[in-house]
Amino acid sequence: MNALKKILGIVWLVLAPVLIVMMFNQLFTEIPALEKAIASGKKPASELQSTYLFWVITITIFVPIAFGLALFGYYSLKGEYDRTVMSSADL
Amino acid sequence: MATVSAEKQGLQTQTDKGIWGVITASSVGTLIEWYDFYIFGSLAAMGIIGKQFFPSDNPTAAFLSSLATFAAGFIVRPFGALFFGRLGDLIGRKYTFLVTLILMGGSTFLIGLIPGYASWGAAAPLTVLVLRLLQGLALGGEYGGAATYVAEHSAYNRRGYFTAFIQTTATLGLLMSIGVIMMTQGILRDSNAVNPNEAFETWGWRIPFLLSIFLIVISVFIRMRMHESPMFKKVKAEGKVSKNPLKESFTKKANLKMVLLALFGATAGQGVVWYTGQYYALSFMNKTCAIDSAQANEIIMIAIVLVTPFFLVFGWLSDKIGRKYIMMAGLLLAILAYRPIYQTMYDVSDISKKKELTEQTKKDTKTEPIKGKPDMLQTEKVTKAFEDGTKAILITKTTQFAEAGKEPKVEKSKSVTLNSGDKWTMIGLIFIQIFFVTMVYGPIAAFLVEIFPTKIRYTSMSLPYHVGNGIFGGLTPYIVTRIIEATKTEAQPSGDILAGLWYPIGIAVLTLIIGMVYLPARTDKDVTD
Fold first, then answer.
1. B268 and which of B200, B339, B344, B472 could share a cystine (Cβ 3.0–4.6 Å)?
2. Which UniProt keywords apply (chain A) (predicted)?
3. Closest CA to B109 of B202, B215, B204
4. How far is B200 from chain A (nearest CA, A)?
């Protein structure tokens, strides 16, 4: 199980930046497409504001969480979770 | 670690005598705080907050903005957890959650007094946002305190069962908020009007917010009579109170790694399951299935009443077989079942698949001038009946502008009332989803209490709980709705209605893997450390 924790540690370490890149990629794809749709009258202008709002919230919140996931992965890789900690004495 | 000293056992069993008073005082306050927090969410899911506080030129944008404001309350919860958690670890559990209760009640009451966007402009949504943030801060400080308080009074072999009472309060708070909204809606309903809920949608929605002040007074009175937690008193008497619980919780690697484990291995998945099964389900019935809001509320209420005892069952069971496998089984079931459940919910309410009784179709059209404007509003109401007993009302509002050349503005809405059989199918589908909630949420308070030591418990358990439940979970309706919006194209104007479910499913899968591999499968008998 400890070997598996180490392997998964690498997975979380890789997954965290991948998630951040995916969020920015989606933002930079979605906004220009929406601007085009608004310019051609297919979508109302107010949709741009709500889309920006969504991405500001999502990126502000989930980027630090992704860092937390990377840190979790790092601890896991370093074997910090190999032993069960359940009391202050173990901390 | 498996043995508990006689002294510690004595401390726990001695306090068990008054456990029901402790549970009642903690639960009532927590229930009222959840009620306060969820009135906003329930009204946002019904589209009322969007109409009141945001510009009305784009109903979808207004709905999303209202969900964003709803989400703001969740986003600040971890900060409330840190701030009030620190207070709780420094000055005690009792006084801290007395403050959170008053802050919550005051903010809720004031939301009920704010004028709408039409009369206050941008100041209205901004003030609502500020009050919503205060609500979030208060709730952030509340839950960790209540769960810790009950757990620290409980005998180790009944900790899951006793803390499960605190776990019922979030769902019961939702039930109470929907119940008060339904009652107010029922009293103000005018069946002869084009829109029977007009009085409620115009001003009646304020009543549930204003009522909060009375509930808070009762709760403050009950809590004033509570005593400090025995374990905190013991830690304090021994001079072991943490001087800086925040620093100890998050700069000490040993504590921080437990906070991360609790977040990714338990609370993140629990949060998405909680909010998908209850809030997103309500939003899905209202917005995607277009079920009449009164019937959608009734469906959720019946399902909650039927399923709530299972919080206690799983809390009790977690004392017998451990917390981990119950929570993980709930996650697994949710992952497997969400897409089929939501597809069935949609199919049950899809009137395009039902046989219409065309001879019973009624059509009323009314044209009237718009108050204070030279424009005219034409309202067409079509009432349809279907062979299986389902009914639907389709309303088309067309604003004809006096200004030459300006295109008329058309708004369409639909309201479906399900027949009895389909209503019970829907109740069953919601019941199953909340059943998953009871599995993941019932044992989690005891689980969180057990992995952190007393002197930093309030701070340390509050943060993963509010990041997991508040942020991962609370943002669920917003993110899911936004994903569905992004799938809308000209060819598929309603988008992929199930696409948004990948968000809760993905988070639940992450938590399931981490939980299964990293979480210990045993209960910690000694939480006096």
1. B472
2. Membrane, Transmembrane, Transmembrane helix
3. B215
4. 27
User: B275 and B474 in contact (C-beta within 8 Å)?
Assistant: yes
B294: nearest Cα among B170, B474, B172, B423: B423
In this complex, do B257 and A42 lie within 8 Å of one another by their Cβ atoms?
A: no
Contacts of residue B143, Cβ cutoff 8 Å, sequence gap at least 6: B30, B81, B166, B462, B465, B466
Q: Distance between CA A39 and CA A34 in Å, rounded?
A: 9
Q: Which of A29, A74, A26 is nearest to B264 (CA)?
A: A74
Cβ atoms of residues B108 and B135 within 8 Å: yes
Contact B261 A61 (CB under 8 A): no
Instruction: Give residue B6's pLDDT band: very low, low, confident or very high (50, 70, 90).
Output: very low
Tell me the CA distances in angstroms from B23 to B16, B56, B418, B429, one per residue in order: 11, 45, 39, 31
Identity of residue B388: D
Q: Do B1 and A87 touch (CB under 8 A)?
A: yes
Could you read off the pLDDT of B43-58 as tens digits, one per residue? 887 778 878 887 766 6
Is this structure's pTM higher than 0.95? no
- The third-level CATH classification (topology) of the domain covering B6-352+420-518 is Growth Hormone; Chain: A; (1.20.1250)
